[in-house]
Each structure stands twice: as C-alpha cells, then as structure tokens.
Design brief:
This is Putative ATP-dependent RNA helicase. Keywords: ATP-binding, Helicase, Hydrolase, Nucleotide-binding. The chain is α/β, with parallel strands linked by helices. The chain has helices at about 10-20, 25-35, 50-65, 85-100, 115-125, 135-140, 160-165, 165-175, 195-200, 230-240, 255-265, 280-290, 325-330, 350-360, 375-380, 415-420, 430-435, 450-460, and strands at about 40-45, 80, 105-110, 130, 150-155, 180-185, 205-210, 220-225, 245-250, 270-275, 295-300, 310-315, 340-345, 370. About 35% of the residues lie in helices and about 15% in strands. The protein has a seven-stranded parallel beta sheet with strand order 3-4-2-5-6-1-7, sandwiched between helices. A seven-stranded parallel beta sheet has the order 10-11-9-12-13-8-14, with helices on both faces. Helix 2 (about 25-35) packs parallel to helix 3 (about 50-65).
C-alpha cells in the first residue's frame, strides 16, 4: 500500500488524514493523486465506495492552498457539483477538516432549504462551494454567486446527474467557470452524455478506471431470498432486528414512511429517508441513523447514492429496484472502504424472472434460496438481535397550539449591489473579463513533474507567513503548460 505522504500530499493534510485513521491510499487515490496534485485534469471511473471523495478533495484543497488567491465575496475559487443534497452534505463534511488545516472555508448550496443562510455565507466570502446544480444556477441568475474566480472544479457522480436530468445545467455551470481551470470528473459510467461533458470541458485528461460499475465487491455477499407474500412482513422485521446498522430499500416514498413507522411501533426503532421529507427532517433522520441511536434506515433510491454511514452491515432490497444500476448503487451502501457486508434481495414468486434479469445485468451470480423468517439462512444474517424497545406514546399537543412563521424577507442590500454585474450572456470568456483576480499568477512557471515537486508542496511553503489575501512576489503559482497545449493565464489579475 502507498501512503498519502509518499504520494506528495501536503503535510498539513496528511496530519488530518492520519488523525482520522487514514494513512494509506485506496487504489483510485493512488492512481489519480499524482496527476491531480500536479494540476492536471482527471476523468476517474470507479464503483461506489471506492474512495472517490478523498481522491478529489485532497487535490482540491491542496491546489487552492498553493494558489493562495484572495477570498472574494460571492466568488468561490473551488467548486464541487453533486447530484443530491445528502451527497453534497457528506462531501462537505469530508472536505471541511482538510480545508480548515490550510485556512480555507467551505459551504454547501442546495435546494429544499431557505436561501438566506447560503446567501449570507457567500456574502462573507467562501473558498469552496459544494453545490447541487439547481440551486447554484438560481443563485447565479440572481447574481448572488459568480464562477469566474473558480480555479478547480469537481463533478461527482456525473452519471447520476445524467439520470436526474442535470446535465444541461451542469454544462451551463461549467461554461461559466474559467476555461483554463483544473477540472476533475468522477463517474461510475460514461454513458448518457457524460462522455460529451468530459470531452468538452476536460483538457487532455488522464483517465483512471478502478473497477467498472458492474464489478462485484469482494467483501460484499449477495443473497436472494425467495419468500411467499404471507411471510414478507415478518421477514422484513426479522432482517431489521439485528444489532448492526442496516438499510432497507423500498420502491415508493409511501412504503418507506409506512415501514419505518411499523418497525418503530414493533419495537425496532427506524427512521425514513425519501423525497417527501424536508431537508431538516432528512438531516435529523440521517444523524439519528449515523450516530447509532437508530440502527435501521428505510429509504427510497434517494439514499442509493450519496449516503455514507460507517459500518452498515446489511442492505435489504425490500422491493427489488427497476434496473441493475440502482441495484448496484443501493447495494454499495455496505462493504465500503474495505469493510465486509451482506445484501439481501427479497423475491416474491411473481418477481423471480425480473430479479434474475436484474442480477444478470449487474453481473451478480447468486443462487436463490427459498426461506421462511425462521430459516437458518436468515438467522445467520441477523446475528445478535437488538433488544426491542417499547414505543413511547407522544404527548398530546395543546388544542390551540400556535405556529409562528419564519417571517422576514431577504435583504441583500448594498452587498449584493457590490456583487451585481452588468447583464448579458455569460460564457467562459466574458466571465473571466468581469471577474479579475488578485495579484496571484497561475502561469509564472513550469511545474516540475515527479516526487520532488510533490514534496515541495507538502512542506507548506508558499504562504510566507502572510495573511490570506496578501500576495507578494514570493507567492507560489500552479502555472503549468497543460497536456493539450492549453496554457494557464499568465497575466496578473487584480481583485
């Protein structure tokens, strides 16, 4: 195994990773970090749980720390795009300790919550934005955020963005970032327009593929339990009753809500996660599940990507998904980061043909087993059973309970006026012209290849003891002749 220090990760970041028990890199990190730390564009392909988040978080933070550009209100220098609110939140959680170690700030931008807090964070000035495309475009149109200062952009789960119809918005967002910026795109597959996105916006990228989307995970064991309709409820309760964390996937939001409520009333505390919940409700339920107070999460496919909770030992497909990629992403919530896990698909008599076709497309070879809730195969997966908890009746609410609305409108005042730019369509060139930067130069010298350059960056040089925003002649630059002949801008930029 290769350590992060050996890969040239800066010492401040290595220290943070080590404090979190991470010293050796996963294969996708080993493969991509030499190129990304050197400022190159990368197209990374790997299955869920392969370590992609750190693979792009480390070079993003390290690169921005080296550039040491001014923090400008409403104009971040790092951008990560993610398809779901849950994934954006979890990415930000992973990035924040790395960023803090080198003096950078992080915020999230997504829909489903009020805009005011996001607006305030941008107004104060933030270095890295982790965003979902929809809300980010809204803020761009309101001129609350502009992307012409972005030095490094990451697109995560690009294939899932294609599934959700986000690619046109992603294209517009990328077109608003500087054409010479560093870009990293990570995706499990390259179909449905993802390849076009990569060809248009990545400059001579190095491509790294660590396992195809259908590659089986060695530490993941798959089971197909053929059951009768009459046994399904008892089987679900039995599989939910173990002491370890488990996720139960249903096809609809109504089923998820109903099953979580039923399990809880039966003494198996469970929370639900689906599209009908508000963002605060989602956050609260995920926190209850992730911190161990609740061991069962009942979810729709909204949790199939972007939900990472340590030590999920079992995934149950209560309702088999409609297509094989959903099966793989659901199943990928377990057996992550080298841990083992089990996946159970419950198959009713009329679902046998569909389940067989689903598993065939997913390249999963497993022999179905006919079981009852009391079968030995089920007992082996349940292991130790959690003690059932008697439900506590909720106290009755006063009849005349009043609700206080969250009044007040948004007031951007002069801050927004200072950020407002003249209209007109924004493309890569017009964006650059309107958002000039501080005296940092990204092109003053050729970056040397090899370990010597990496170790220099790890030593924490280039900030010169100056406060953020002060830039003198000793400021280091990531200026580099990029592989396809594109040269980062040499001209000095003033804020």
């Amino acid at each position: 195994m290769t350590t992060f220090a050996e890969l040239g990760v800066p010492a401040e970041i290595v220290k943070v990773l080590a404090a979190d028990g991470k010293s050796e890199a996963f294969p996708i990190q080993t493969d991509t970090l030499p190129a990304t730390l050197d400022g190159g564009d990368v197209l990374g392909r790997g299955r869920t749980g392969s370590g992609k988040t750190l693979a792009f978080s480390i070079p993003l933070v390290a690169g921005l720390a080296e550039l040491d550009v001014d923090r400008v209100p409403g104009a971040p220098t790092g951008l990560i795009l993610a398809p779901t609110r849950e994934l954006a939140t979890q990415i930000a959680t992973a990035v924040e300790p790395l960023a803090k170690a080198v003096g950078l700030t992080v915020t999230t931008i997504f829909g489903g919550v009020k805009q005011a807090r996001q607006e305030q964070a941008l107004g104060r000035g933030v270095d890295i934005v982790v965003a979902c495309p929809g809300r980010l475009e809204d803020l761009m149109q309101q001129r609350i955020v502009r992307l012409d200062n972005v030095e490094i952009t990451v697109i995560d789960e690009a294939d899932h963005m294609a599934d959700l119809g986000f690619l046109p918005g992603v294209t517009r967002i990328l077109a608003a970032t500087p054409a010479d910026g560093q870009r990293m795109l990570f995706s499990a597959t390259l179909d449905r327009g993802v390849d076009k996105l990569a060809k248009r916006f990545l400059d001579n990228p190095t491509m790294h593929s660590v396992d195809e989307a259908t590659s089986p995970v060695e530490a993941m064991t798959h089971h197909v339990f053929e059951i009768e309709h009459a046994d399904k409820n008892a089987m679900v309760a039995e599989l939910a009753s173990g002491t370890g964390r488990r996720i139960l996937f249903t096809r609809t939001k109504h089923q998820a809500r109903k099953l979580a409520k039923k399990l809880t009333s039966d003494g198996i505390p469970a929370v639900d996660l689906h599209g009908n919940l508000s963002q605060p409700q989602r956050d609260r339920n995920l926190k209850a599940f992730g911190e161990g107070g609740v061991r069962v999460l009942v979810a729709t496919d909204v949790a199939a990507r972007g939900v990472h909770v340590d030590a999920i030992e079992l995934v149950v497909h209560v309702d088999p998904p409609a297509e094989h990629k959903a099966y793989l992403h659901r199943s990928g919530r377990t057996a992550r980061a080298g841990n083992a896990g089990d996946v159970v698909t419950l198959c009713l008599p009329d679902q046998r043909r569909d389940v067989a076709g689903l598993l065939g497309k997913a390249a999963i070879k497993v022999k179905p087993v006919r079981v009852r809730p009391s079968s030995a195969e089920v007992d082996a997966l349940v292991g130790a059973r959690a003690e059932r908890v008697e439900p506590t009746p909720e106290p009755a609410r006063p009849a005349a309970q009043s609700r206080q609305g969250a009044g007040g409108g948004r007031g951007r005042g002069g801050a927004n006026g200072a950020r407002r730019r003249s209209g007109g369509p924004r493309d890569a060139q017009s964006s650059r012209g309107s958002g000039q930067r501080g005296s940092s130069q990204r092109g003053s010298g050729q970056r040397s290849s090899g370990q010597g350059s990496s170790s220099q960056r790890g030593s924490g040089q280039a900030r010169g003891g100056q406060p953020r925003g002060q830039q003198g002649s000793n400021t280091q630059s990531r200026g580099q002749q990029r592989g396809g002949g594109r040269v980062r801008h040499q001209a000095a930029r003033t804020a």
